[in-house]
Amino acid sequence: MTTGRNDEALRTFKKVYSLNTGKHPDTFPIKSLIDEIKLNAGGKHGGVVTANRTKTQTLKEGWQQIAPMFFPPHPWKIILASAIQCGLMWGTNTIRLWLPQIFTAMNDYQLLHPNEIANFCTMLSIITPDNKVMTVEE
């Protein structure tokens, strides 16, 4: 509609109406749509029609819509949400990278001590600071 294709828009509305209600498309109560290009001529009603808008106008309108996020009370909420998201990603990726090493250490411990029941910390203690796995002789 904002690009002047009202006939296509009306056909689409009729089709959606027909699919939603099960009625024939011709029973759609709206018979014509307002021509937004003529309505918004001269920049009335809050903006330029999409088809006639320049890139500069598009950026200005986008900034007008986004700008309120940067004024109170929103900045602290954005900072908090960003910090939480950063922490979640950091934690998730850390676990994702360490899990294979942890599982390997647990498996190695079970191979070296087949009939022993041990807690998690004991199983991980076979990894030495220089990243070598201790053997039974050590």
Overview of the structural elements:
The chain has helices spanning 6-21, 36-39, 55-66, 74-112, 120-124. It has 5 helices and no strands.
Outline the fold blueprint.
Layout: H1 6-21, H2 36-39, H3 55-66, H4 74-112, H5 120-124
Task: Write a short abstract of this structure.
One of its GO terms (cellular component) is membrane. With 138 residues, the protein is mainly alpha-helical.
> Biggest sheet, open or closed, and with what strands and sense?
none
- Gross morphology is elongated
The percent range for strand residues is under 5%
Radius of gyration: 32 Å
Count the E strands: 0
Whole-number count of domains: 2
What structural category arises from helix and sheet content? mainly alpha
The termini sit apart by 78 Å
The average pLDDT score comes to: 83
The portion of residues assigned to helices is 55-70%
SSE arrangement, N to C: HHHHH
Low-confidence runs: none
Q: How many helical stretches?
A: 5
Oligomer: single chain
GO cellular component, one term: membrane
Main location: membrane
Subcellular location: Membrane
Membrane topology: Multi-pass membrane protein
